[in-house]
Spermidine/putrescine import ATP-binding protein PotA
Amino acid sequence: MPQPIIELRHVIKRYDDHTILKNINLTLEPGKFYTLLGPSGCGKTTILRTIAGFTDVTEGDVLFAGKRINAVPANKRNVNTVFQDYALFPHMTVAENVAFGLTLKKTPKSEIKKRVAQALNLVQLADYGDREISALSGGQQQRIAIARAIVMEPQVLLLDEPLSALDAKLRRQMQYELRDLQQRLGITFLFVTHDQEEALAMSDEIFVMNQGEVLQSGSPVDIYDEPINHFVADFIGESNILPGKMIADFQVAFGGHQFECADAGIPVNEPVEIVIRPEDLTLTDPAHAKLTVTIDTQLFRGDYYEIAATDSLGNDWLIHSVNPAEDGTAVGLTFRPQDLHVMRFGEKEAEFDARLETYETEDETRDET
Ligand SMILES: Nc1ncnc2c1ncn2[C@@H]1O[C@H](COP(=O)(O)OP(=O)(O)OP(=O)(O)O)[C@@H](O)[C@H]1O
């Protein structure tokens, strides 16, 4: 692993009696796109502020390229922030806004001019230097805020919900642009959002947070496919989450039946929760499936039907299907063993990772035999 550019080690932040960050450990490598994802108030902005140097930590260490920077003031850190409300200066032109930090640093005028032009070019607003900020659209203001940050050539760019003020279409476009910009600049981005789709689409690695803790970290695919607990499964995409029991390695019971699964290493008879994504369920003739549900209602979502159903034990099911089903009818549900994700109650990330590794190896061994 390359030398991390940012590390938080056992970071705790308290305001009076409230612990806002509870033992945060994060490692950011150079040149990657990271996302802090979690509900409002979980501490995402506070993490950005501790890295930027706007907030002191109560306990723990903040490191930049291996050196402790707890006492280094914000303006001496090689980190820049793009804020949610952009914080542009309305009475200055675009070029003056972008030049602001360099002017403060007393950078020579000719260099300022060159770097502002480069930064505006990178955000595709090369001809906008003389415009008033108020004459720009929301998306353009967003890009200027980014240009103003990257003109300082930071090694780390912190982005606090930068797309939240934009409409859905522009937001999607900016997701592509930001991802592309991060790859072209080759610097580390730490992006904050409470939008799981945005996090999944853009990140190399996601940290899922709740109530001042990082619950799980990993690639978007890992987190989507193997959520560590109920909160993560529910927060990342839509899920069916059902109570069940481990019968043996690779055998789990739920909904009144036993099913083959891809999980092992959990003690027999241990109560577990099973996650099945709505898109992994297939509707079939009830005669050909162990599990039968009754269709309650459905919504057409453009490229699929979202179907709500109930099983004989009263569990609710959500199914995504390209074909509609008739309300009130009984249908069978099928799925593949690898589409069942078994979660233990209260499992910690390290135990979860160790278990995944074990059964992935066992899976390979099984495949070979
Ligand atoms: N200066 C402060 N004094 C006291 N409490 C604070 C202070 N700053 C933040 N908090 C509290 O810390 C918690 C975390 O806030 P933070 O802004 O980090 O959350 P967030 O995940 O970024 O939320 P959002 O998505 O709403 O911005 C909140 O409960 C907030 O009220």
Observations:
- Residues 15, 20, 38, 40-46, 194 surround adenosine-5'-triphosphate (CB under 6 Å).
- The chain has a mean pLDDT of 90.
- The first helix runs from residue 44 to 52.
- DSSP finds nine helices and 20 strands in the chain.
